[in-house]
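G., the chain you wanted modeled:
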Amino acid sequence: MLLIGSIRTYAQAPSFNIVKTASPIMIDGILDEKDWATADVADNFQMNYPHDTLAALSKTEVKITYDDKSLYIGAICYDEIDGDYIAQSLKRDFSFPVNDAFAVFFDAFSDGANGLSFSVNPFGVQRDGIISSGGTRGVTTSWDAVWYAEVFRGSGYWSLEMSIPFKTLRFKSETDIWKINFARNDLKRNETSTWAPVPRGFNVATMAYYGEVAWDKTPRATKGIKTALSPYAALSFTRDIENGDEKVRFKPNAGLDARLDLNTSLKLDVTINPDFSQVEVDEQVLNLDRFEISFPERRFFFLENSDMFAGLGNSRVRPFFSRRIGGVGSDPVTILGGVKLSGKINKDWRVGFLDVQTKREEDVDDAQNYMVVSVARKILTGSQVKAFFTNKSAFNGDDPKDYNRGAGVELDYRSKKSTITAHSYLHVAKTEEKLKNAFAYGAKARYRTSKINVFLGLDAVGENYITEMGFVPRLYHTDEEGATQRIGYNQLRTNGNYWFFQKNSSVLDYMGPFFGFDLFTGKSWNYQEHKTKLGWEIRFMNTNVFRATFTESNPVLFYDFTLSGLDIPFSPGNYHENAFSLEYDTGKRKRLNGSAEIGIGQKYLGKEFKIEGELNYRISKWGAFGLNMSNKKLYNFPEEYGEANLFLLGPRAEISFSRDIFWTTFLQYNTQKENFNLNTRFQWRIAPMSDLYFVITNNYFTDPFSTRNWTFVLKANYWFDF
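Predicted structure as tokens:
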């Protein structure tokens, strides 16, 4: 039976029973079927925020049942405060922290490492995602699945029903105990609560704190291979005036995505001639750094189980970066097809296999084959060892040439309650030249409690660690001739914070210092540069945050380098820089919200003044309007360098006509790139996982204002489930 109590400790994981339903459950948001009346109740939620030692003020009751095909979750979220529910839009995959919502988290393998999440807000909008890294990094919502949910809004409460097909879930059929947790976000009360208590400062999806559900009968997967097909058809009209197109180019296109569920956790994805024209454009930034910056992957095929591919290494040393594969950048390359096998083969082993073939593009690139193979072995609860192999090969006819390969082993560790997390890796790379110093290794560890968060890490990268499929920006430098040079390095880094909670204050939540320090050396540990950051943060009970930061650094230039907008380059050597900034963020609870940062400091031989921020306004649940702005002024340089004033402006509008019909328009005016971009997209979800898109993308010169290129795309896809 359910273990309850007004205040529970983290060691007392709650549990309850689940019994098979004797009659059908109608998904209408109203828990009026007789099986709901006899089901066990998961209640007595405990606060995660603003306190983690008190029972939740917002009462929540959860029940679960099932039949031969689906798992059913019903919940009643009581609401004693007048006012509208907070929802940023009616669009699927909303952000949980800034919406009123209910969520369920599954760890059906009880491995403490990977799971699934399903959420719904008071207006019936769905959110689904993948949990990796033990939930310490939250939920990745780029994964979509077929499941159903409805909501009923009554007087003083809202209730919900979910129907999740077993073929959507990932579980092992040998156990009748699943790890599970529920979370409730009540933004009107400014409270987040969970059924199994999760300490403040930890993400509510953290798997180390889940409770348990005991099945009356071990759930069994449907026998046989389950298949889903999603064909698409697209029509595009394009004119590239900048590159001399005199006429509009018309291109019809078609392709197919297929998914085969080999068992309840191992899936085979196949894509033939994929098209990603409906994917939103990247949100641009003003980049004054010497190195490449990364943008997130948004293409569906590359996202599921991405921790087995893009999750290798760390954010600074990636052996595989999927955006290197076709369709991204100024010279996109067509992907002919790809296959991906990913998931669990048993309770201890996970596998990942990805192979993608691109088309030869005249004057752009040879045909390329990209392959990643990875395996992971569970060693402790929430911990695992990984090994991987990557291969990129160019093809001329049937003969492979110009290959680039990599391999490595990694260790992920999480303590029982995730207060300590650690990661270490050893990678090697290989090219036809068989160069020396083609390695990278590193380790990092983090200690986290509600008040303390401390991080320590090391990366070491050899000058010939060449990963054409990867992302290692610090390794690459541009010399005076414009050629790319590689310089190996070691990086020691640490950061952390300590929060003083204001328990007796109705205004202040916490305040405290934060710090960061990075030291870069050459391969012989000779000094290159460093960066020190010190600051103070204050968080208010209304979720507003104020932050003051001082930064001192000593960047090194190995070759001449010209800052964007200036006239001549800076000479090689070290440059001393100091900077100070103030930030303020209002949070997302109010209809009108925003954030702003103002900073001033030295920049090489001159100064930089920056203002960055965003302003958002929400009209009920149907309209969201925003404006992002960034202005960086470079001044007070010696006369021969000149001055620069870079400006980026990004208005955005999102209209939700219903839970299935959306219109989004995004503008970006960027003087650094001398480009004005318009992207407008209409989406109609005609059925689960099936959509109709109209997308227009225009790019213009800013001085003088004239058209560079434009594209119009009409695309439709439909999901057939067998």
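The domain at 15-215 is CATH 2.60.40.1190 (Immunoglobulin-like).

Shout if anything looks off.
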